[in-house]
Design brief:
With about 140 residues, the protein is α+β, with helices and mostly antiparallel strands. The protein has one domain. It has 5 helices and 6 strands. Strand 3 and strand 4 form a beta hairpin. The structure holds zinc ion. Zinc ion (ZN) binds next to helix 2.
């Protein structure tokens, strides 16, 4: 694992407005510290540069691990996971009033499943944050 300087960590967190770039959880509402994710893992040749880094909550980072793709649960086709530097979140996901992150694309379906976006406990936490105006 490559060392990531404090300055680069700060830049990545600021750019993300302190929200997980996968599930949108704000750092202030997380049980554990957010982490810097290599979107393309180092083992796949991903570099420690701004364009390959994003802010991820501990859960998203753990579930994503070094994965780059998965199967679209609807078609069983292999699709690349959502890439926070190359795609726009709202093109692939939508948050509904019940706290569920709805996928809008094959990439969104595959990413949402592999990152467990809609685990019942997570949805309940998200719903409470929405009610408090914090999500
Ligand atoms: Zn997350």
């Amino acid at each position: 694992m490559t060392y990531i300087s404090e300055e680069l960590r700060r830049k990545v967190a600021e750019r993300a407005e302190y929200r997980c770039e996968y599930c949108r959880l704000h750092v202030d509402n997380a049980y554990f510290s957010h982490e810097i994710d290599h979107i393309y893992a180092e083992k796949h040749g991903g570099k420690t540069i701004e364009t390959n880094l994003c802010l991820a909550c501990a859960d998203c980072n753990r579930y994503k691990s070094s994965d780059l793709c998965s199967l679209d649960p609807l078609t069983d086709e292999i699709v690349a996971l959502y890439h926070p530097r190359r795609q726009t979140w709202s093109d692939h996901f939508r948050l509904n009033d019940e706290g569920i992150i709805e996928p809008l694309s094959p990439r969104g379906r595959a990413t949402g499943r592999i990152l467990w976006f809609n685990d019942p406990e997570t949805v309940e936490d998200r719903r409470r944050l929405i009610q408090l105006g914090e999500f």
